Amino acid sequence: MTKKKKGAAMPPIRMIDSEADALTEMTLHQQRDSVRFYELLLGEIDRAAICDRSKIPADVVTMGSKVTFSDEKNGTERTVHLVYPAEADISAGRMSILTPVGAGLIGLSVGQSINWPDRGGIEHRLTIVAVEQPG
């Protein structure tokens, strides 16, 4: 069954098993802050094909990945490292998974796009341009 969001099919995504567990735990603990956002992130974890790290292709966005993505809404391209909240520092290019954009990027692979809301609820079309895995 393919889930749809505003008329667009959601792209298939993959997540590393241990990361999916950690993200679910973090999301459930912080859900009270922004129920809609955390429901979206939990939905992404729920629909992801959960795999062992060794089975994840190198072009899939995972925690610690350096990811370049474009935002069709404002015509920009940006490169960030996707990190856990304690490591986040947007001025240094480290984006938390618990931000709307960070949550939208996890699990996507190069060439995939997703329609995803920002903090204000405005939807953006994010497309993965490049992924570089850590270490």
Describe this structure in a few short sentences:
24% of the residues lie in helices and 31% in strands. The chain is built from 3 helices and 9 strands.
Please tell me about this protein's structure.
The structure is a single chain. 24% of the residues lie in helices and 31% in strands. The protein has helices at 17-30, 35-47, 100-105, and strands at 4-5, 8-9, 14-16, 49-51, 66-71, 76-83, 94-96, 113-117, 123-132. Helix 1 packs antiparallel against helix 2. It is globular and about 35 Å long.
List the helices and strands and how they pair.
Blueprint (H helix, E strand, L loop, with lengths): L3 E2 L2 E2 L4 E3 H14 L4 H13 L1 E3 L14 E6 L4 E8 L10 E3 L3 H6 L7 E5 L5 E10 L3
Parallel strand pairs: 3-4, 6-7
Antiparallel strand pairs: 1-2, 5-6, 5-9, 8-9
Helix pairs in contact: 1-2
Overall 3D shape: globular
Output the structural class.
Answer: alpha/beta
N-to-C order of helices and strands: EEEHHEEEEHEE
How do the strands line up in the largest sheet? 7-6-5-9-8
Uncertain segments are 1-5
Number of strands: 9
Straight-line N-to-C gap = 36 Å
Share in β-strands: 25-35%
Largest sheet: 5 strands, mixed
Keywords:
two-stranded antiparallel sheet; alpha/beta; five-stranded mixed β-sheet; 135 residues; 9 strands; 31% strand; 3 helices
